[in-house]
Design brief:
115 residues; 7-stranded mixed beta sheet
Length: 115
C-alpha cells in the first residue's frame, strides 16, 4: 500500500483546509485509514480514523466539531476537511493505513495556522 498526501499549506486562524490521501496498491486489504499529526517537539497523535466497511469514525477531542474525515472508495482517497483552524493545529499531517497486520504511512504534509 502506498499513500500520498496533499493539500497542506499556510492558513490564518479561523480558515479551512482540506487534506487528501490517495492510496494505491493493495487497497482492498485496508481495514482502517487514519490521519495523524505531529507538532514540533511533540509526539505523533491520532486526529481521526475511519474503518472501512462499517464506516465507523473516531475523532480526537481536540478536533471534534471542526474536522471531518471521509473516504471516497471509488477514488481510493481519504480526506480531512479542517474548519475553524487554530494555531495549535499547526503540525505535519500524516496519512496512515492499516492492512493485513501492517501499518503504512504517507510522507506527510505541513499545515501551518497563523494567529
Amino acid at each position: 500500500v502506498q499513500l500520498v498526501e496533499s493539500g497542506g499549506g499556510l492558513m490564518q486562524a479561523g480558515g479551512s483546509l482540506r487534506l487528501s490521501c490517495a492510496a494505491s496498491g493493495s487497497t482492498f486489504s485496508i481495514n482502517i485509514m487514519a490521519w495523524y499529526r505531529q507538532a514540533p517537539g511533540k509526539q505523533r497523535e491520532l486526529v481521526a480514523n475511519i474503518r472501512t466497511g462499517i464506516g465507523r469514525i473516531n475523532y480526537a477531542d481536540s478536533v471534534k466539531g471542526r474536522f471531518t474525515i471521509s473516504r471516497d472508495n471509488t477514488k481510493n482517497t481519504m480526506y480531512l476537511q479542517m474548519n475553524s483552524l487554530k494555531p495549535e493545529d499547526t503540525a505535519v499531517y500524516y496519512c496512515n493505513a492499516y492492512a493485513l497486520g501492517y501499518s503504512y504511512w504517507g510522507q506527510g504534509t505541513q499545515v501551518t495556522v497563523s494567529s
